[in-house]
């Protein structure tokens, strides 16, 4: 395939050479194991609290596991009248999916154009894109809100999705990737009479699926997890994403621990599975573009 | 804002004119058209949703703009004067500085440490890498919720207080008051847990790019494996990655919002710049003028810090220059 990233799964020589150094193999595994347990505690707590009753969670003595697993907790966030959890979950699905699809389409094409299509002012255009990287998007939420509200896009999918599609950083990463795409493949496409458009869709994209998968994973996670922009745009609860809904649980008057943690579990678990499934491409993608030596 | 004109003007490509420039081949002839075909959608959006808001914001920052985004009263630098003398805003810059002083070195050390551990594993390496990388999939809101409700809950059934209780230590109100400032422990550990795994991956990739001949040569020269090799080979070889990681961490810390907002919702202390900005522009006053001035000041600050740090630490000078 086109990926040239180092295989992070293989054991390198230094690893072997250092064997028997400061840390014995047992010590190494004990240290890593302790760190791993600490890293897994928050996940354990979500599952524990989501499947317990409130008296068990808030009881005098710490319980590691529920006495009986409360599977019925699963439906509670959906029956809660204070927060429309199902609606917020659906909003997040729509926003994250369209956000990912839109960014991949728009930014990959722009990245390809900047990397591969000769144009005498291409450098100036590229610098204009680079300049936007200096201005962190989080800091511009005030002016962006000003613009979006004057377009009448508050509380709408348009307002939630469209302003975030033009990511200078994603475009930049695609450009860097396409700069390293083998030219021979495109030249072969041209011999076959394909223009830039045809070559891009028939040759370049199908041969870059690994990289697209990596970018899709990270973009989807960011879209699903983003909070500040949905908080700004979602003035009405019907436009809340799941993150805004979770945040509202924390400031509610009454706290239903099992309900809140079940809602958190529902919001995290799909992502964790997607993440574990696509992790390989993500690791390659980060190693490839994140930072090169 | 002169840059806005570049993409704007060229929105209407003129293939006929271009064919004079590059008449050699049919394909080359319309490369200008194709350039705009590919980059056009992105650039139009970039102008509308990035350049226009920034320009608008700069314009607003010179006007008295409460509850309106089309103000008429020009006030010069008044908004800047008011933001730069606003105690909450200045405190938020102090909060950011303290936060960065904790989180940047802590994440750097933690992610490098995890990478060194995982890199030496011979069995179950993929498993442990996944465990440390997994929090990347979790949102700041969800993590803040776990931290606030279950780990650092101020009452007895919170995990941290339960643990302390086993040693006979009284409950600690982690987030309820600023003195003693236990809230820093909560805020720093949330972010540490969430982002260490990501930077660990960067360090892992960099570690595997270190030529093993260096270690062999060092061994022949009598360097002991462990601290000596780490100090004189590994660390210098990771310099470019370290620099970039520190820069990324600093920029991310500057934009911290989610965990502060959710962990300290009613506090008057420990509020970072973006939270203050939110309160100013989108809170009760809806003062877009002062809010915009604040955004401009923060943007300038981060540009200066980025450029300054880039200069000092040699960002961009790759490892190949060694």
TrEMBL record, chain A:
ABC transmembrane type-1 domain segment(s): 89-278
Lipid bilayer topology: Multi-pass membrane protein
InterPro entries tied to this protein: MetI-like, MetI-like_sf
Annotated transmembrane regions: 26-47, 89-113, 125-148, 160-178, 199-221, 257-278
Chief location category: membrane
Keyword Chloroplast part of the UniProt annotation: no
Annotated compartments: Cell membrane
Top-level taxonomic group: Bacteria
Record keywords, A-Z: Cell membrane, Membrane, Transmembrane, Transmembrane helix, Transport
Span of the signal peptide: none
Family, per entry: Belongs to the binding-protein-dependent transport system permease family.
Protein's UniProt name: Carbohydrate ABC transporter permease
Gene source species: Streptomyces olindensis
TrEMBL record, chain B:
PROSITE patterns linked to this entry: ABC_TM1
Any matching Pfam family: BPD_transp_1
Subcellular location: Cell membrane
SUPFAM superfamilies: MetI-like
Region of interest (Disordered), ranges: 1-23
Top-rank lineage group of the source organism: Bacteria
Keyword Transmembrane helix listed: yes
Keywords from the UniProt entry: Cell membrane, Membrane, Transmembrane, Transmembrane helix, Transport
Location (main, coarse): membrane
Membrane topology value: Multi-pass membrane protein
InterPro entries: ABC_transporter_permease, MetI-like, MetI-like_sf
Signal found in the keyword field: no
Ranges of residues in domain ABC transmembrane type-1: 93-309
Membrane-crossing residue ranges in chain numbering: 33-59, 93-119, 126-147, 182-207, 238-257, 288-308
Gene3D superfamilies: MetI-like
Family the entry assigns: Belongs to the binding-protein-dependent transport system permease family.
Protein name, UniProt field: Sugar ABC transporter permease
């Amino acid at each position: 395939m086109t990926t040239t990233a180092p295989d992070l799964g293989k054991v390198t020589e230094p690893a072997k050479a250092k064997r028997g150094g400061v840390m014995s193999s047992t010590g190494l595994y004990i240290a890593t194991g302790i760190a791993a347990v600490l890293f897994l505690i928050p996940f354990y707590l979500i599952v524990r609290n989501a499947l317990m009753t409130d008296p068990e969670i808030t009881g005098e003595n710490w319980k590691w596991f529920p006495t009986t697993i409360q599977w019925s907790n699963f439906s509670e966030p959906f029956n809660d009248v204070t927060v429309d959890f199902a609606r917020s979950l659906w909003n997040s699905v729509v926003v994250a999916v369209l956000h990912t699809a839109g960014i991949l389409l728009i930014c990959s094409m722009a990245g390809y154009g900047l990397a591969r299509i000769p144009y005498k002012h291409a450098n100036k255009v590229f610098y204009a894109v680079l300049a936007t990287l200096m201005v962190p998007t989080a800091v511009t939420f005030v002016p962006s809100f000003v613009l979006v509200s004057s377009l009448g896009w508050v509380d709408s999918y348009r307002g939630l999705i469209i302003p975030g599609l033009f990511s200078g950083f994603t475009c930049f990463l695609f450009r860097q990737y396409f700069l390293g795409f083998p030219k021979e493949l495109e030249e072969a496409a041209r011999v076959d009479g394909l223009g830039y458009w045809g070559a891009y869709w028939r040759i370049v994209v199908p041969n870059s699926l690994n990289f697209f998968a990596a970018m899709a994973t990270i973009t989807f996670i960011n879209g699903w997890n983003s909070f500040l922009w949905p908080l700004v745009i979602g003035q009405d609860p019907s436009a809340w994403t799941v993150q805004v809904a979770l945040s509202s649980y924390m400031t509610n008057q009454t706290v239903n621990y099992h309900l809140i943690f079940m809602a958190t579990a529902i919001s995290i678990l799909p992502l964790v599975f997607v993440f574990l499934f696509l992790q390989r491409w993500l690791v390659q993608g980060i190693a490839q573009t994140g930072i090169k030596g | 804002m002169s840059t806005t004109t570049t993409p704007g003007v060229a929105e209407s490509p003129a293939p006929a004119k271009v064919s004079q420039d590059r008449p050699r081949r049919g394909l080359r002839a319309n490369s200008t058209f194709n350039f705009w075909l590919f980059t056009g959608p992105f650039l139009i959006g970039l102008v509308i949703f990035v350049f226009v808001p920034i320009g608008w914001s700069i314009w607003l920052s010179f006007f008295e703009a409460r509850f309106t985004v089309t103000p008429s009263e020009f006030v010069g630098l008044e908004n800047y004067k008011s933001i730069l003398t606003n105690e909450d805003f200045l405190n938020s810059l102090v909060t950011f500085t303290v936060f960065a002083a904790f989180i940047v070195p802590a994440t750097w050390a933690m992610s490098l440490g995890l990478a060194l551990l995982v890199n030496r594993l011979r069995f179950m390496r993929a498993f442990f890498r996944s465990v440390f990388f997994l929090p990347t999939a979790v949102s700041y809101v969800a993590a803040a919720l776990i931290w606030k409700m279950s780990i650092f809950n101020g009452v007895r059934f919170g995990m941290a207080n339960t643990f302390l209780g086993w040693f006979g230590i009284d409950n600690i109100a982690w987030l309820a008051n600023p003195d003693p400032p236990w809230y820093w422990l909560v805020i720093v550990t949330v972010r540490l847990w969430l982002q260490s795994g990501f930077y660990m991956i960067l360090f892992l990739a960099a570690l595997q790019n270190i030529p093993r001949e260096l270690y062999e040569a060092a061994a022949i020269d009598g360097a002991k494996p462990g601290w000596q090799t780490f100090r004189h080979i590994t660390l210098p070889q990771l310099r470019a990655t370290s620099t970039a990681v520190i820069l990324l961490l600093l920029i991310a810390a500057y934009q911290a919002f989610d965990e502060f907002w959710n962990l300290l919702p009613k506090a008057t202390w420990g509020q970072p710049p973006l939270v203050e900005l939110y309160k100013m522009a989108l809170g009760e006053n809806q003062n877009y003028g002062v809010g915009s001035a604040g955004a401009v000041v923060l943007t300038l600050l981060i540009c200066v810090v980025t450029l300054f740090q880039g200069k000092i630490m040699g960002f961009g000078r790759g490892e190949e220059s060694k």
